[in-house]
Amino acid sequence: MLEHGGNLRAAQQRYGGTDWIDLSTGINPHGYPAPAPTPDAWHRLPERDPELLRAACAYYGAPQLLPVAGTQAAIQALPRLRAELAGPARVTVSAPSYAEHAHHWGRHGHVMHQVAYDALDDAVDGSDVVVVVNPNNPTGATVAPDRLLAWAERLAARGGWLVVDEAFGDTARALSVAAHAGRSGLIVLRSVGKFFGLAGLRLGFVGADTPLLTALDDLLGPWAVSGPAQEIAIAALRDHGWQQATQTRLARDGARMHALLANHGIDTQGTPLFHWWAEPRAEAFHEHMARRAIWVRLFPGAARGIRVGLPGNESAWRRIEQALREWNDT
Questions:
Q1: What is the share, in percent, of the chain residues with pLDDT greater than 90?
Q2: Does residue 287 have a pLDDT over 70?
Q3: 220 and 76 in contact (C-beta within 8 Å)?
Q4: Angstrom distance (rounded) from CA 114 to CA 109
Q5: What is the pLDDT of residues 232-271, one digit of tens each?
Q6: Which residue in 240, 258, 98 sits closest to 163, CA to CA?
Q7: Is 269 helix (H, G, I), strand (E, B) or coil?
Q8: Could you give phi then psi for residue 57, rounded to 5 degrees?
Q9: How confident is the model at residue 1 (pLDDT cuts 50, 70, 90)?
Q10: pTM, two decimal places
């Protein structure tokens, strides 16, 4: 399996200590206060609750959605589904971006290429499938919705797909193309884990046209999303007060992190939930922070650099600032 953030046990085993600050993911550190599920949610097989679909479609502005066990389930299933429906495809994946996309499209007989964001337009006409993470993880790069929809139209005209991963789209709602996910050839992925801070729930949604959602549903099989996950998600997706307060808090904390890093000579890009920069001494910075029980995400490959999420309390903010001050003194 590929390496991801959130592997705090590995950090503890290597460096010791228990009082760790985990900045290695872009997950909201102040997650939604999940209500206790009803007893039925534990005892019954999880039938799909139509209230979940209504709540999700209203929140994401999508005409129709398929609940899945985290967008990772769809990321793994879509390459297989494409191979079953249309055979091997010429696939272009935006790069650098979330590595699971390229990893899985590189299987199932597809011919996969990774292309930089500024070269994607030229790659569309030579591809059967194009995959874009928007906003991008880890760099924060974005593509305008009208451009995405134009790509989707060009691909759909010859039976192609545009897959848009909007896992971090909650804080950039103007970028979303979820409202157009009923169009042929456009597939939109949304995650409950990041903005809502409910990564352990393992819940996401796929927006696409009806035939594709039906085929994906058949491939994933019954009971893909647990009953407790459905109940908690309905509450979170309908809690407009919490959502608005969280947008405000994340905007404030994201700006604070950007300013903190800038004050120590680090120029970043990203989203309110995470910041990334091309760090020439990436391994040394990662080690420096780890020795202070601060776990950041190291990208040693194409996205060479460091990504940091947000801390959850003032004590953590102070420890991060002290560690950055000490880094500048090295």
A1: 95
A2: yes
A3: no
A4: 16
A5: 999 999 999 999 999 999 999 999 999 999 999 999 999 9
A6: 98
A7: strand
A8: -60, -40
A9: low
A10: 0.96
Distance in angstroms (rounded) separating the CA atoms of residues 205 and 22: 26
What residue spans of the chain are helical by DSSP H? Answer: 8-15, 39-43, 50-60, 71-86, 99-105, 120-124, 145-156, 210-220, 227-238, 240-263, 282-290, 314-328
Mean of pLDDT over the chain: 96
> Which residues have CB under 8 Å from 157's CB, separation 6+?
none
Mean pLDDT of the 122-135 span:
97
First vs last C-alpha separation in the chain: 35
Other CB atoms within 10 A of residue 133 CB: 27
State the average pLDDT over residues 114-119: 94
Is 314 strand, coil or helix?
A: helix
Question: 135: cis peptide before it, omega within 30°?
Answer: yes
How far apart CA 130 and CA 60 sit, in angstroms, is 22
Task: Examine residue 280 and say whether the peptide bond preceding it is cis (omega within 30 degrees of 0).
Answer: no
- The HSE-up count of residue 317 (CA atoms within 13 Å, CB side) is 12
Distances from the Cα of 268 to the Cαs of 103, 142, 235, 296, in angstroms?
Answer: 27, 15, 34, 14
Pair 178, 66: CB distance under 8 Å: no
